Amino acid sequence: MIHYHGTPITPRERLYELAGRSFCVSFADPRDVRVCHEIGQTWAVIPDVIDGDEDANNALLVSWSLRGLPKGAPVWHLHESLDRLQRLAAGYERVCFGSSGSYAQIGTPGGTPNEQRIAKRGPKRRSAPEGARRCG
Q1: Among 3, 70, 66, which residue's Cα sits nearest to residue 33?
Q2: Residue 71 φ/ψ, nearest 5 degrees
Q3: Where are the domains of the chain?
Q4: Which end of the chain is more exposed for a tag (fewer CB within 10 A), N or C?
Q5: Is 96 a residue whose pLDDT tops 70?
């Protein structure tokens, strides 16, 4: 299990004392995000619209990349297309899976249809959503 330190952390010296640790930075209050990316060890989950469509989530990826933040991992939702998952896998080092839509109940016996297809063939490498910057 990874322990995350919630932010903001004040005074600033206390934040720097936690170098090498993992942080949870709220999108609503991102004042510590740059420092946490510099000194932290884990990746940020890029904000997403849980029951949104692919266009809404791709727009958030573009917004994230325009901030110039490294180490972001997008979320692919189980109701989204496998093509989107393939594009995310091609453009990002890590991709988070999120339950949503008619697949909001975790632990569906046998998995969702998309989970079953992923297990059979796995994603192929393609390009990231237009306008999104590859993280690294």
Answers
A1: 70
A2: 55, 45
A3: 4-121
A4: N
A5: yes
